[in-house]
Amino acid sequence: MLVVDYSNADSIKHALTGVDTVISTVTGDPQIALIHAAYQARVRRFAPAEFEGAPASQPNPDPLDARGSKILARSWLEHYRNTIESTTFVCGVLYERFAPGGLRQFGLGMNTGVSGEGDYLMDIRGMTVNAPVWDVNNREVKICLAAAQDVARFVVKALSLRRWPRELRTYTEKMSVMQLVTMVQEVRGKTHMLSIICSTST
Fold this sequence. Notes:
Blueprint: H1 9-15, E1 21-23, H2 28-40, E2 45-47, H3 69-79, E3 85-86, E4 88-90, E5 93-94, E6 122-123, E7 128-134, E8 142-146, H4 148-158, E9 167-169, E10 173-176, H5 177-188, E11 195-200
Parallel strand pairs: 1-2, 2-3, 4-9, 5-8, 7-11
Antiparallel strand pairs: 6-7, 8-10
């Protein structure tokens, strides 16, 4: 394991010497610096730290990308496309977001501002949900869900592909937001105690 100073371009470039593929797990300025260093070190493939919904369907502004750093990362990867092949791993919402302690309990999403228990879509302990239930056409909003471990296996399998498409998609389950709410109610045994704030997806 190498310790990298993301504020030092030479440090990152040295760490990437001889590296074929980068699977990024950092966001913000460190990821931008990593992309530039990958280009300088002639890294062949790069996957940005997305691991959520498809970029084209993400809201604007995106609560998971308050500073716009993910958009910037994708822009730089597009700029370097003739040199670096890249893909976005699309897996939807990680189940771990709804676990006790949230993503933070697993050391994930630490600098997103929404990694704690109850920070995203619903607070199961407090039995509240603030989520887009219907879209602008009054259709039920559906979400894809996946376990972090399954996503990790998918990423490992993707390393053996000869070519990467723009997106690589996987999910464990697809359901409507209301189905997810109903499941939580049944598991908690508190069918009539869940406070639902029905937002509209735009």
